[in-house]
Design a protein that fits this description.
The protein is α/β, with parallel strands linked by helices. The strands form four sheets. A seven-stranded parallel sheet has the order 3-2-1-4-5-6-7, with helices on both faces. The chain is globular, with a radius of gyration of 29 Å.
């Protein structure tokens, strides 16, 4: 086995002058189980090299070819002599383009340490699609960098298994918080981009006001003329990395007030690891570097000054942030190295393990399930409600045939059949004839004509027909009249109807037809996360809007009142990290990308369209609660009939929600406890097998005990 790591040209793989790339490679390779198989390739004039297997690529000056191209050419000579099983390229997407056509069969991995949209080889959408198509894995140092890479990319690429995030890291250290000195520390280049001018002006005011505090500045910038002087301001210049860490151990307050969008921000990460009360700007990936700290909403001399002043004046708050930084720090070398090894193992050994659990029942039915399975979207909605109900039927031992109505009409529409509806209805009749189902169940199958269902009921007397519906049914709400008619169009021919809104608040339903409530079903094959066990969640609150299943991208001119609500919430909720999609010009996410983002969040907001109505919720609730996120839902949904305050958190307005989010963002123990209880209850009582069983029992008029189903035990 042979693994080659290719560093950027002129990257100093040396303790003398190491950058973020070199430190990450050194730290993770040192702990890797594949260490003896790894060779690091680089180019540096420094003699003091990190003590790992390292090959320095020495170059002769060439006026025709660029240094980078010559560097890659020389690397390829080594590869041609002894090919690697895996090549890891760090922070140079253009190297991939140079290498790809010159090697055979090697697997290539690319790790981004900087903003992909600023780098040669990944600036254009075409470049990034090529990387996605041809690399084996693309790793980012932050979720912000990952989002940047995916800008302008639509379709299958958004859900690529190749994309992951592995954070920059550092070894934890024992820090005696009671030994902290009254130091305010800034580490970074002394320029405008890093906000050194803001820090310098702010800290001079601080030093003038607080005579017993000192400031420490580490870094240099020959091109910048930003100079600040004070007898208690120590400008140390570039300093050895270990020395920097020792200074952070003694520092009480650290400041990283970058103007530019930091892809991650190593100085704030290191400060947090050494128990500093850290102040950061809300730029790029900086918020992902800390678990607790002060995140500046606006960046100015005034805001930096006030943040430092607040921590000096409020010793209790300062000590609390220092303690939480140490207690909850997880960006460790050990964890990052393990994640790097995990992907290496999967690539090199190609082992995928999937667990399946299927429960069988004695009675087997043939079920024809007509709904939108979105086959044309390459599995983007593999976790939709139709799939969940299918899984429940199958676990009960039934045979299920999927009939994806919207895929069919798009395939069969023609000049004579513009919508494809004629072909759809003809195909449904023929399928029933061939399959002979016991149950025909519809989910939002709007182009199936009532007369088609009437024909089938007339010709197959034993055929049971049901429908389920999960879109909002709120008067004066989104698509109310349309959604109402979609239900009523088929209800004359159905035996049972199942809604995710409580039927007792819907006055349009006929009294002679069974209309029953079902919860959004969870599924053990989809809700596989236990975020209450995950100590590495870097974001506090997750929320996403879809903007339509079919387009899957931001719709121009579309306004959703939920975006206004969330933006108000953010304004009222300081120092909480929100991971948002589908609003504020951030593209929606789908499929596995959606679940990966959920996996990185501690809490989720279950915010549905329109005013709250009894029992209605989007299927977002099962994705949040079912994956172990602490979930917030409006109390007017009446979900407190099902769940207590120690299982799901209820709110009544944006201010109330803000207060509760801030409370639980500071109390990990309570958050995890409630999230765990919420998941356990939801997965036990609202799972797809129970929901499917409820549909079967009521459609076939089977006798059962009422207490079999939690939602039937509620006294309205």
């Amino acid at each position: 086995m042979k693994i080659s790591i290719l560093l950027p040209y002129k990257e100093n793989f040396s303790p003398t002058y190491a950058g973020a790339v070199s430190l990450f490679v050194k730290d993770t390779v040192k702990l890797s189980v594949y260490k003896k198989y790894i060779t690091v390739f680089g180019n540096t004039n420094l003699k003091n090299i990190f003590k790992l297997s390292y090959k320095n690529i020495e170059l002769n000056k060439n006026l025709i070819q660029s240094g980078s191209k010559l560097y890659v050419s020389e690397f390829l000579k080594f590869e041609n002599k002894l090919p690697s099983d895996l090549i890891e390229i760090h922070n140079r997407p253009n190297y991939f383009h140079l290498i790809f056509n010159e090697i055979n069969n090697q697997k290539i991995v690319l790790y981004f340490h900087n903003d992909p949209l600023t780098m040669t080889g990944s600036k254009s959408v075409a470049d990034r699609k090529k990387l996605l198509s041809n690399t084996t894995k693309i790793i980012f140092n932050s979720h912000w960098s990952r989002k940047r890479f995916l800008q302008g990319i639509e379709g299958v690429h958004l859900n690529s298994e190749k994309i992951t995030v592995i954070y920059q890291s550092i070894s934890p250290a024992k820090v005696k918080l009671n030994k902290k000195k009254k130091w305010i520390t800034f580490v970074g280049k002394l320029n405008h981009a890093k906000g050194y001018d803001l820090f310098g002006k702010a800290v001079l005011k601080i030093l003038k006001k607080y005579k017993n505090w000192k400031a420490v500045v580490i870094g240099d910038e020959p091109r910048s003329k930003l100079i600040f002087k004070h007898k208690r301001l120590n400008v140390m210049g570039f300093t050895n990395h270990n020395k920097v860490l020792e200074i952070f151990k003694k520092t009480s307050i650290a400041v990283a007030c970058s103007r530019w969008n930091e892809p991650l921000g190593r100085s704030s990460l290191e400060a947090s690891s050494r128990g500093c009360a850290t102040i950061i700007s809300n730029r790029g990936g900086l918020p992902e570097t800390i678990t607790h700290g002060i995140i500046l909403k606006k960046l100015s001399v005034f805001s930096v000054y006030n943040a430092i002043k607040d921590l000096i004046d409020n010793e209790k708050k300062r000590n609390e942030l220092q303690g939480l930084s140490i207690k909850n720090f997880y960006h460790t070398n050990k964890l990052s190295s393990k994640k790097m090894d995990d992907y290496r193992k999967n690539i090199l050994q190609a082992k995928l393990i999937r667990k399946k659990s299927i429960n069988n029942s004695a009675k087997s039915l043939r079920i024809l399930h007509v709904t939108n399975f979105n086959e044309r979207h390459d599995g983007r909605l593999f976790f939709n409600t139709g799939r969940r109900i299918n899984n429940g039927f199958i676990r009960l031992g039934h045979s299920v045939l999927e009939f994806s109505d919207r895929d069919i009409i798009r395939h069969y529409k023609s000049f004579r059949d513009h919508s494809g509806s004629k072909a759809l209805n003809r195909k449904l009749i023929n399928t029933v004839y061939n399959y002979k189902p016991d149950l025909l169940i519809f989910g939002h199958a709007d182009l199936v004509k009532p007369e088609t269902i009437a024909y089938l009921k007339d010709n197959y007397k034993d055929l049971k027909v049901a429908q389920w519906f999960l879109d909002p049914l709120i008067k004066n709400g989104p698509d109310y009249e349309k959604n109402k008619s979609r239900i009523l169009d088929k209800i004359k021919f159905t035996d049972t109807n199942f809604l995710t809104t409580s039927p007792d608040v819907l006055d349009f339903l006929p009294k002679n037809k069974p209309c029953l409530f079902i919860p959004n079903p969870s599924d053990p094959s989809f809700e596989v996360l236990n975020n209450y066990e995950n100590n590495q969640c870097s974001m506090d609150v997750f929320f996403a809007l879809s903007h339509g299943v079919h387009r899957g991208i931001l719709k121009r001119g579309k306004h959703d009142e939920r975006a206004d609500f969330v933006n108000k919430l953010i304004e009222k909720t300081p120092n909480v990290k929100f991971d948002l999609y589908g609003i504020n010009n951030i593209q929606p996410i789908w499929a596995d990308s959606y679940f990966k983002s959920i996996a990185n969040a501690k809490m989720g907001i279950n915010l549905s369209r329109g005013n709250p109505i009894k029992y209605y919720s989007s299927d977002r609730i099962t994705q949040f609660v079912g994956n172990g996120l602490l979930t917030f839902i409006h109390d007017k949904t009446h979900y407190n009939n099902f769940f207590s305050d120690d299982e799901i958190i209820f709110y009544n307005n944006v201010s109330n929600l803000s207060e509760k989010i801030q409370k639980f963002s500071k109390d990990d123990y309570l958050r995890k406890k409630i999230a765990k209880k919420g998941k356990e209850k939801y997965m036990k009582f609202f799972n797809s097998t129970i929901v499917a069983d409820y549909i079967i029992k009521n459609t076939f008029e089977c006798s059962y005990k009422k207490n079999n189903y939690l939602w039937e035990n509620i006294k309205n």
